[in-house]
From TrEMBL:
Its cofactor is pyridoxal 5'-phosphate. Residues 32-381 form the Aminotransferase class I/classII large domain. Its EC number is 2.6.1.-. Pfam families: Aminotran_1_2. This is Aminotransferase. It is an enzyme of class 2 (transferase). It comes from the Bacteria. InterPro entries: Aminotransferase_I/II_large, AspAT/PAT-like, NHTrfase_class1_PyrdxlP-BS, PyrdxlP-dep_Trfase, PyrdxlP-dep_Trfase_major, PyrdxlP-dep_Trfase_small. SUPFAM superfamilies: PLP-dependent transferases. Belongs to the class-I pyridoxal-phosphate-dependent aminotransferase family. One of its GO terms (biological process) is amino acid metabolic process. One of its GO terms (molecular function) is transaminase activity.
Length: 391
């Protein structure tokens, strides 16, 4: 078509996610077990569903304001204060978004311009780079493999200095997808000490914050760097509400006043029914993630024991619900091929590490947001696969 050459040229930099490509390539395998999805296998708690039903019955079917339902912003403000010691005023420092994905889109399109660079510790969730590319900016990855996927202040500062004036933002995600790495208070404070020296935005995707398995719990960088941080969060992971599409941007008033400009023209406002459900989630359901965490830890430890015995190298994740495992050296390190062969020979789907960028090659990601029955069967099939797979 003649019109094709008139699209935004930056679309040429964007391809269908390798995760989706892989899923399509094995979708015809009968009865396949999937350890691929980045969403809880739990259902949304009943009391949250009841709150949504009540909102429907009360004819709450109209737009909220662009920032979202005030009652929800008040609940979100109180939640992050209690959980993470953060101070955000519900009137002008919180935006309700359509999931964390829209929060990221609204944020990155608001702050980035052509020629800007964004630093991102890698391997990383593949959804960030396309947003940056679409506005003409570039993601620059920080390779964390040599330090067991843990970013250090020294790595961060070296990368900042290398980018110079082109650098507009540093994008953090922790607990991290795909590695499950998270950071202690001491580590977060050290990052903040570096970042406060530079005029850069800190976009912190903390959507897995309630799935942190360390004794001290999640520590937000916004506690130490509130004036620079744009904090992204949501209810998809914490309350098993992926389909409700409910997220948040937390930022100081001056930043929020700019961010709402991109947010409002992307979506107008989040679903009103979802917002009423979210009020319930953040008040009566503020501890809903706790029983999920107990189950996730059991699953994590089971998989680590099984895969380690099979020769995989695994850095024990301290958050989220993913295992990022090194393919044993005696096998082909082409992660896409490895996962395709596993799917076709044993009907189990896991995600190739290359889907998370070049620094993920040679690894595979498994989601333990699946039942123990499914996980147990998948581990048995993995053992059978390795016993016959060509080395």
């Amino acid at each position: 078509m003649e019109l094709l050459h008139r699209f935004n040229k930056n679309l040429e930099k964007i391809e269908v996610s390798l995760i989706r490509q892989f899923d399509q390539s094995i979708s015809d395998v009968p009865g396949i077990l999937k350890l691929t999805l980045g969403e809880p296998d739990f259902t949304t708690p009943e009391h949250i569903k009841e709150a949504a039903k009540a909102a429907i019955d009360a004819n709450q079917s109209h737009y909220t304001g662009m920032s979202g339902l005030l009652e929800l912003r008040q609940a979100a403000s109180q939640f992050v204060k209690e959980r993470y010691n953060l101070d955000y005023h519900p009137d002008n420092e919180i935006l309700v978004t359509i999931g964390a994905t829209e929060a990221l889109s609204a944020t990155l399109t608001a702050i980035l311009e052509p020629g800007d660079t964004v630093l991102l510790p890698a391997p990383a969730y593949p959804g960030y780079e396309p947003i940056a590319n679409l506005v003409g900016a570039e993601i620059v990855e920080i390779d964390t493999r040599a330090n067991n996927f843990v970013l250090t202040p020294e790595m961060l500062e070296e990368a900042i200095l290398a980018q110079g004036d082109k650098l507009k933002a540093v994008l953090l995600n922790y607990p991290t997808n795909p590695t499950g790495v998270t950071y202690s208070r001491e580590q977060i404070k050290a990052f903040a000490d570096v970042l406060k020296k530079y005029l850069v935005f800190v976009v912190s995707d903390e959507v897995y914050s309630e799935l942190s398995y360390t004794e001290e719990g999640h520590v937000s960088i916004a506690e130490y760097l509130p004036e620079q941080t744009i904090l992204i969060n949501g209810l998809s992971k914490s309350h098993a509400m992926t389909g409700w599409r409910l997220g948040f941007i937390f930022a100081k008033a001056a930043l929020c006043a700019e961010l709402i400009k991109s947010h409002q023209y992307l979506v107008t406002a989040a679903s009103t029914i979802s917002q009423f459900a979210a009020v319930e989630a953040l008040t009566e359901g503020k501890d809903d993630a706790l029983p999920m965490c107990v189950e996730y830890i059991k699953r994590r430890d089971y998989i680590i024991d099984k895969m380690t015995a099979l020769g995989f190298e695994i850095i024990k994740p301290t958050g989220a619900f993913y295992i990022f495992a090194k393919i044993p050296e005696s096998y082909n390190q082409d992660s896409f091929r490895f996962c395709q062969d596993f799917a076709r020979q044993q009907a189990v789907a896991i995600i190739p590490g290359i889907a998370f960028g070049k620094y993920g090659e040679g690894y595979v990601r498994l989601s333990y947001a699946a039942s123990m029955e499914t996980i147990s069967a998948a581990m048995a099939r993995l053992e059978q696969f390795l016993a016959t797979y060509g080395r």
